[in-house]
C-alpha cells in the first residue's frame, strides 16, 4: 500500500509546484528601481476603505491621497501614472508585505513612529499628510478647548492608540474622564450623536469626515487642539537608499510644484518658457536631477503632468469640494502657515 | 365530547362548499390557536408582522431609490440602493479588464453547471467525475489566463469573482485530497494512518482565520528574499487544506457506513485495494455523501469571506470599501443588506438542493 503515500506525495507536490510555478515572481537583487523598471509596474500597498486616502470609486478605479502618491511615483519612474498594481493590505499585514517584497511602496496612511522605523524592515520616506488625534464635542456645551472637558464621558473604540493618547493627555493634567467603549465605528458615532457621551476622539481627518455625514453637523464642534502627532506617509523596504530617495523626492517634487505654482495644467507652458531656475530644475530642463536618481530627467514633470501638484491632489481627494471637506490646516505650505516643508530641488 | 361528535357528524353530512377554505380554517385552528397561550403568541406575532412587513417593504422597495448617479438622488425616505446599482460591475467582476469579462461569465456558467450535472441521471458518472476534475483547472486557466489567453494579475481579482473562485476551486481541489485523507485514516499502514490522523486533527483544531493569518504573515518570511507567492494563491491553498480535513471526516463517515459484505465480496472476486475502492466502495460513498458535501461547500463558501482580513478583496471587501467611499458614506445598511441577500440566495438554493438530493436518494434506496 505504498501506493497511497506515493500518490499522496505526488498530489501534494504537484499542487504545490503548480502553484509556486504560476505565482513565482523572481526578482533580482539589483535594487528596487531596477526591479520596478524590469517589471514595468509599481506594486503599491494601499488600504481598501479609507475615505479620501485610498478607496474605490464606482467604476472600480482606485482613488485618494495615498493612491495618488503611488501614481506619481509610477509616473516618475515608469513615465506612466497608470502603471501601478494596487495590492490591498490590512493594518496587520502591511509591514510583512513590505518586508517580504510583495509590494514596493506602502502608502496606507501609516504613521511615522520610531519603533516602526527601527523594527519592521521598513524605512519611512517623508510625511505626506499631517494628521493628529482630535476631539469632537457637542456644540451646545460651549466648550472651546479640551482642557474644559474635565469629567467628560468619551466614546472610544477598544484597543486603539487613541485610547492610550487620551489617557496620556488627561493623566498628565490630572483631569478625569470616563469612557463608553463601542467596537463598531458606525455605532460609535451614532452613540455620540444621540448624546450617549460628551465627546469622541479619533484622527482629526476622520472626525471631520464623519461629521459631514451627521444629521446636523453644526450641532458638533471639532476642538482645535491635537492631542497626538500623526505624520502619515509612505514606507519603503529597508536598506534600499536609492529607492527611498526616489519615493521621498517624488513627494517633495509635488510639494515644490505647489510652491512654484506649477500645476498639471500649466506644466507644459512652464517647462517651455520659464525664467525661474527652480522651476527649470524641477521640470528637468536644467541640472539633470532625475538622471542622478537613475530616472528620466522629466521624472517630476511626468508626475505633475499626470497626477498634479500637492494642492491639486489634496483638493481632489479631501478638499473643500469633496464630501470630506478637510481644512488644509497643518498641511499648508510652510510659507502659508502650515508645516509642509519640502527640501529644495537643486 | 358531544359537541365534537355532533360537529363531525354534521361535517360528514354536508361536505363544505369550499374544501380548501375548510382546510385552511382547520389548519389555522390547529397550528395557530390550539391553546389560549399559543393563540396569544400567534396573535402577537401576527400583529408584529402586520406592523413590520409594510414598513419593511416600504423602506426596501416602495420608497427606495434604484435609479440615479449619486447620493443626492436619494430623496425618498426609503433605502438608497444606488451604491449597489452604481457599483454592480465592481461587485461582480472586481477590477477584471472590461474586454475580458466574457471569461468570467463562462467561468461562472461552468461553476453553476455542476448542480444540474450532479442531478442528471442519464449522464455517465465517469463524465461527471471527469468534469469535476477538469473544472478547477479550466476555471483557473480562464480567469488567470496563459496558454492563449492574456494573463490577468490577481490584483485585478475582487468581488463575487473572488468568492466564487475561492469557493468552487477550493471545494473541487479539496475533494480528492479529502478522499485520500479519509482512506489514509482507515489505512492499515500505521505511518499513513498516523500522518492522516495528525493532519486532520491538527487542521480541525485550529480556526481557519489563524491559518489565513499564517498564510498572510508567516509563509512569506520563510522564503528566500525576492521570492513571493501571490497572496491569492496562498489563501486558496489554506482554504483547500482546511476544507480537505473536514471533508475527510465526512467521507470517513460514508466509508464506515458501507457494510463489510461489500469489502468481502470484492476480496472474494480478487479485486485489488484500488479496484475495490475505485469501483465498488467510493462510488457508493460519494453518492451517499453528496448532500453533506454540499453542506460543507456552503460552509466553505461563507468562510471565503474571512479572506478580507488578510487583504484579499472579496465581495465583503468591496462592500466595506463601498461604505467608506466618500460619495456613499453612511449607507452601510443597504450595502450589508445586499450582501446578506447575495449569500442567502446562494446558500439557500444550495441547501435546498442538498435536501432535494437527499430525498431522491431515500427514494432510490427504497
UniProtKB/TrEMBL annotation, chain A:
The keyword Signal applies. It comes from the Bacteria. SMART domains: PBPb. Residues 41-270 form the Solute-binding protein family 3/N-terminal domain. GO terms for biological process: amino acid transport. The keyword Signal applies. Gene3D superfamilies: Periplasmic binding protein-like II. Keywords: Signal, Transport. Belongs to the bacterial solute-binding protein 3 family. This is General L-amino acid transport system substrate-binding protein.
UniProtKB/TrEMBL annotation, chain B:
Keywords: Amino-acid transport, Cell membrane, Membrane, Transmembrane, Transmembrane helix, Transport. It comes from the Bacteria. InterPro entries: AA_ABC_transptr_permease_3TM, ArtM/GltK/GlnP/TcyL/YhdX-like, MetI-like, MetI-like_sf. The chain crosses the membrane at residues 40-62, 101-120, 127-143, 158-183, 195-219, 231-248, 304-323, 335-354. Residues 160-354 form the ABC transmembrane type-1 domain. It holds the Pfam family BPD_transp_1. GO terms for cellular component: ATP-binding cassette (ABC) transporter complex. Its main location: membrane. It is a multi-pass membrane protein. It is found in: Cell inner membrane; Cell membrane. One of its GO terms (molecular function) is transmembrane transporter activity. GO terms for biological process: amino acid transport. PROSITE patterns: ABC_TM1. Belongs to the binding-protein-dependent transport system permease family. HisMQ subfamily. This is General L-amino acid transport system permease protein.
Amino acid at each position: 500500500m505504498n501506493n497511497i503515500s506515493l500518490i499522496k506525495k505526488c498530489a501534494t507536490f504537484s499542487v504545490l509546484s503548480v502553484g509556486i510555478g504560476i505565482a513565482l515572481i523572481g526578482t533580482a537583487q539589483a535594487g528596487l528601481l531596477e526591479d520596478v523598471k524590469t517589471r514595468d509596474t509599481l506594486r503599491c500597498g494601499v488600504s481598501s476603505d479609507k475615505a479620501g486616502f485610498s478607496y474605490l470609486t464606482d467604476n472600480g478605479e482606485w482613488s485618494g491621497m495615498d493612491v495618488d502618491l503611488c501614481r506619481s511615483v509610477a509616473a516618475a519612474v515608469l513615465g506612466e501614472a497608470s502603471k501601478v498594481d494596487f495590492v490591498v493590505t490590512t493594518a496587520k499585514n502591511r509591514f510583512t508585505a513590505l518586508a517580504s517584497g510583495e509590494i514596493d511602496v506602502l502608502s496606507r496612511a501609516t504613521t511615522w513612529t520610531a519603533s516602526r522605523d527601527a523594527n519592521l524592515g521598513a524605512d519611512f520616506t517623508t510625511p505626506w499628510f499631517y494628521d493628529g488625534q482630535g476631539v469632537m464635542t457637542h456644540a451646545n456645551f460651549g466648550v472651546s478647548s479640551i482642557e474644559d472637558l474635565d469629567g467628560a464621558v468619551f466614546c472610544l473604540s477598544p484597543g486603539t492608540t487613541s485610547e492610550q493618547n487620551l489617557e496620556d493627555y488627561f493623566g498628565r493634567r490630572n483631569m478625569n474622564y470616563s469612557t463608553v467603549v463601542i467596537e463598531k465605528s458606525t455605532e460609535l458615532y451614532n452613540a455620540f450623536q444621540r448624546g450617549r457621551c460628551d465627546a469622541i476622539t479619533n484622527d482629526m481627518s476622520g472626525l471631520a469626515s464623519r461629521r459631514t455625514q451627521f444629521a446636523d453637523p453644526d450641532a458638533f464642534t471639532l476642538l482645535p487642539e491635537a492631542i497626538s502627532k500623526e505624520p502619515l506617509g509612505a514606507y519603503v523596504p529597508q536598506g534600499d537608499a536609492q529607492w527611498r530617495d526616489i519615493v521621498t523626492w517624488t513627494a517633495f517634487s509635488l510639494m515644490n510644484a505647489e510652491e512654484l505654482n506649477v500645476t498639471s495644467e500649466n506644466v507644459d507652458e512652464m517647462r517651455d518658457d520659464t525664467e525661474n531656475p527652480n522651476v527649470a530644475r524641477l521640470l528637468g530642463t536644467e541640472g539633470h536631477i532625475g538622471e542622478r536618481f537613475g530616472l528620466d530627467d522629466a521624472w517630476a514633470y511626468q508626475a505633475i503632468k499626470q497626477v498634479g501638484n500637492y494642492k491639486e491632489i489634496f483638493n481632489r481627494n479631501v478638499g473643500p469640494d469633496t464630501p470630506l471637506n478637510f481644512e488644509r490646516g497643518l498641511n499648508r505650505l510652510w510659507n502659508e502657515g502650515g508645516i509642509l516643508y519640502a527640501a529644495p530641488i537643486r | 365530547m358531544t359537541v365534537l361528535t355532533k360537529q363531525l357528524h354534521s361535517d360528514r353530512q354536508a361536505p363544505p362548499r369550499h374544501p380548501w377554505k375548510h382546510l385552511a380554517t382547520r389548519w389555522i385552528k390547529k397550528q395557530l390557536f390550539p391553546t389560549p397561550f399559543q393563540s396569544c403568541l400567534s396573535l402577537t406575532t401576527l400583529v408584529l408582522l402586520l406592523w413590520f412587513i409594510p414598513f419593511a417593504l416600504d423602506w426596501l422597495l416602495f420608497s427606495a431609490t434604484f435609479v440615479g448617479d449619486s447620493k443626492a438622488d436619494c430623496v425618498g425616505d426609503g433605502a438608497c440602493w444606488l451604491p449597489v446599482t452604481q457599483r454592480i460591475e465592481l461587485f461582480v467582476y472586481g477590477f477584471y479588464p472590461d474586454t475580458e469579462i466574457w471569461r468570467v461569465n463562462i467561468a461562472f456558467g461552468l461553476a453553476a453547471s455542476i448542480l444540474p450535472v450532479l442531478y442528471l441521471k442519464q449522464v455517465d458518472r465517469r463524465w461527471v467525475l471527469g468534469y469535476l476534475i477538469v473544472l478547477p483547472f479550466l476555471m483557473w486557466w480562464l480567469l488567470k489566463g496563459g496558454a492563449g489567453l492574456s494573463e490577468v494579475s490577481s490584483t485585478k481579482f475582487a468581488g463575487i469573482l473572488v468568492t466564487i473562485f475561492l469557493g468552487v476551486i477550493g471545494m473541487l481541489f479539496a475533494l480528492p485530497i479529502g478522499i485520500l485523507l479519509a482512506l489514509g485514516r482507515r489505512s492499515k499502514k500505521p505511518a499513513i494512518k498516523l500522518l492522516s490522523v495528525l493532519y486532520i486533527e491538527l487542521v480541525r483544531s485550529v480556526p481557519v482565520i489563524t491559518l489565513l493569518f499564517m498564510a498572510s504573515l508567516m509563509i512569506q518570511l520563510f522564503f528566500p528574499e525576492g521570492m513571493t507567492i501571490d497572496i491569492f494563491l496562498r489563501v486558496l491553498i489554506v482554504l483547500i487544506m482546511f476544507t480537505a480535513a473536514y471533508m475527510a471526516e465526512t467521507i470517513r463517515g460514508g466509508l464506515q457506513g458501507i457494510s463489510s459484505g461489500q469489502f468481502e465480496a470484492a476480496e472474494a472476486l480478487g479485486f485489488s485495494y484500488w479496484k475495490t475502492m475505485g469501483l465498488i466502495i467510493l462510488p457508493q460513498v460519494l453518492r451517499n455523501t453528496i448532500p453533506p458535501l454540499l453542506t460543507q461547500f456552503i460552509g466553505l463558501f461563507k468562510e471565503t469571506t474571512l479572506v478580507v482580513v488578510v487583504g484579499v478583496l472579496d465581495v465583503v471587501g468591496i462592500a466595506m470599501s463601498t461604505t467608506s467611499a466618500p460619495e456613499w458614506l453612511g449607507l452601510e445598511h443597504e450595502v450589508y443588506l445586499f450582501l446578506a441577500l447575495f449569500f442567502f440566495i446562494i446558500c439557500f438554493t444550495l441547501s435546498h438542493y442538498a435536501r432535494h438530493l437527499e430525498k431522491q436518494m431515500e427514494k432510490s434506496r427504497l
